[in-house]
Amino acid sequence: MDPHDHRSVGHAMALFHQQEDGPGVAFWHPRGARLWQTVEDDIRRRMAAAGYAAVRTPQLLARSLWEKSGHWETFAEAMFTVGDGERRLALKPMNCPGHVQIFNKAVHGRRDLPVRLAEFGQCHRNEPSGALSGLMRGRAFVQDDAHVFCTEEQVADEVARFCRLLGTVYADYGFESWHVGFSTRPAARAGSEAAWDRSEAMLEAAARTAGLDPVLQSGEGAFYGPKLEFVLEDSRGRRWQCGTIQLDRVLPERLGALFVDTDGVRRRPVMLHHAVLGSLERFIAVLLEHHRGRLPFWLAPDQVAVASIGPDQAAATEAAVQQLAAVGLRAVADVREESLSRKVIDARRLGIPVLAAVGPREAAAGTLALRRLFDGGKAEETPLYAAAAALAAEALPPSRRA
To answer: What is the largest CA-CA distance in the chain?
Structure first.
């Protein structure tokens, strides 16, 4: 296997593994769970700042709801189901119908729109065994899914808001280049031709207003509406479809979504489906391959390894870890009875970007010998308090640094 394949990188970094007992799913180890949580917390913060309310929807929903939404006709073969007949339930393959149910539980006026809902929703799809490919394609995945219920007049602003968010995220995660496709009506679709004409024209106009120049992808839209697909280009020139925003008039009609207009008339909102990352599993796989395991400092599962040079420095090493952790850094102590060179090799393998050595001089002076492991720099002796402050500032995403 390619040593830069995310499965090889994940094994070397002790992030996750897969086994036959869980085909198409991953077992996340403590270091992998820290990486996952770092990404999730970051996106949650950004979504909250952009005006999205976090929600949670059920894993199991009745077949009747999936039939009503139109997903049963399209996705039934890919759904995991339990029970029979009218009592048949399905594990959700996507989050959209659940978000419509939440929207429908309140009476919304025009002034309440847009309503923005977001969820890190666990989805399941019964992918063929031959299609499974590590984290890139599995049978269980989490989407950073969001839905906006808005008026037609608000579509352009909401698309622009999403594109600004997406562009900042991709830059912070180290992707300098990304591309946009405009996917139009597929052969199997719901809704009238007139509705599709309006939806496609509206989404394309919104994309161009947002400064995008999307490439036409005829017939690649969802069954309920056209979409913009955002494709990342990695360090090896490969392209990966991650983010998406879709304009939908079908689900609001099928599931009864309404708002009360200023004239007192009930009208259908437009529903925008979108995700910045797409599948978190797949995005993390792309991230690992793009950076070849050497993640940016702010993303690294463990940011600093504090290594004792001899057994007499174990206490000072543990104390340094506590001080670094106190300012929010993910620091670990390495007090094994191994040589410093061995500890450096192991830290590099695990993708830890900074090693701080503590020998007799550093322990006595309250300093650390800091070494950047990814750029080949030499160790620099730095007071512990200064190292903590400098590294804490670097631990923020680039867009949040002063």
So the answer is: 78
